Amino acid sequence: QARRTLSVQCVAAPEQVTTRVQRNKNIGKLQAGYLFPEIARRRRAHQEAKPDAKIISLGIGDTTEPIPPFIVEAMKKASEGLGTLEGYSGYGAEQGKGELREAVCKRLYEKVGRKPSEIFVSDGSKCDIGRLQLMFGADMTVALQDPAYPVYVDSSVIMGMTGGHNGTGFEGVQYMVCRPENDFFPDLSKAPRTDLIFFCSPNNPTGAAATRAQLTSLVEFARANGSIIVYDAAYALYISDDNCPKSIYEIPGAEEVAIETCSFSKYAGFTGVRLGWTVVPEQLRYADGTPLIQDFNRIMTTVFNGASIIAQAGGLACLQDEGWAQMLQLVEFYKENAAILRKTFQEMGFTVYGGENAPYVWVGFPGQKSWDVFAEILEKCDIVTTPGSGFGPGGEGFVRASAFGHRESVLEAVERFKAVYGNKQ
Ligand code: MLT
Questions:
Q1: Which Gene Ontology terms cover its molecular function (predicted)?
Q2: Which atom belonging to ligand 1 lies closest to the Cα atom of 62?
């Protein structure tokens, strides 16, 4: 047997150098890590301290149930096709497959006047929000719901649209407070004009879905001020209340002032598969008359190469009758989880919001700091939640419980909550 000898030469490690490149000063303005990795870090620390603890996560809104069979079959077929000459394909259109754009439009937007050419298929809403920010550039003024999904504010900070953090929030950002006192809808009579308004309904984290009347006033506000609404509808299919629109385009005139972004993540369990879309109506124009759709198309064709064709095959299946029915069942399952959590907290005497039109339950702990409550629940119940203040100053005093989880985990969480907080009143 031949033996090979390996000769290793030891050289002294080069001295560490620091580049002469200045850090993006806007990233330096961000306070801590992005919310969910920070929560994951605390969870790991808890697990290390209590290795036997069986931690339940009601923290990040990440889906847990298998993707419905009709949809999985379509993705299987698409991936197997890639292994054949006939089924192979390379780059697709950056805007998404024509067939999928048509199917999204037919199922969700045709009745509200949108066209397939206005629908841009992507790898998800979060990514699209980043690309929208790239399109808008640094010179925009921004308003957002407070509390809100952290991506809106963090991406605005990174782009340079804001000043530094003043201990409460970022300078220059208009935080539109949404709390029980105002029915979780901002007082627009007091809101100053901004170029952009990020608005999420049903809201993450509060679970509040805006009514038709509320959205009408939002659209009127944007029209009167010449603002653009970036409407995040990622949870729209969780809406039960007929009085709450599932798309901003149900409101007349929205097509001239609103972009809508949405995703299959929370509908079909696609958080890992990655597929979403953004609607940019032809009628939406900048002050100089340039249609936004033209610029968004430029962004997508420049920094995006189209969503995975396997994911797109899955998306197409979601929109066919059988896939649609299976997907709605999945949504229903998570809504039942939400109802279980909501009822539990109510029965224990907490003030609870959300959970009826959204997969998030928003629980009040008046007078307490959200991070303290988060830490206490983790310590006493081995349950991860999300501290309300992580979504903005307006979320202080609340924690969010996510309904994404296996049923047995949710039921086990209920038992643990009752054991610790059951005697609240
Ligand atoms: C959340 O927990 O708020 C969501 O999972 C975040 C996301 O959709 O990116």
A1: pyridoxal phosphate binding; transaminase activity
A2: 5
* 73 and 47 share one domain: no
Q: Based on the fold, state whether residues 78 and 54 are members of the same structural domain.
A: no
* Nearest residue (CA) to ligand 1, atom 5: 61
Which is the closest atom of ligand 1 to the Cα of 151? 9
CATH number at residue 333: 3.90.1150.10
Q: How many structural domains compose the chain?
A: 2
- CB neighbours of residue 44 within 10 Å: 11
Best of 60, 122, 152, 238 to mutate for ligand 1, by most ligand atoms within 8 A of CB?
Answer: 60
Task: Say if 305 falls within a structural domain.
Answer: yes
Q: Is there a domain that residue 21 lies in?
A: no
Q: How far is the CA of 260 from the centre of ligand 1 (A)?
A: 17
Domain hosting residue 354, numbered range: 32-67+323-421
Among 300, 320, 340, identify where a domain stops. Answer: 320
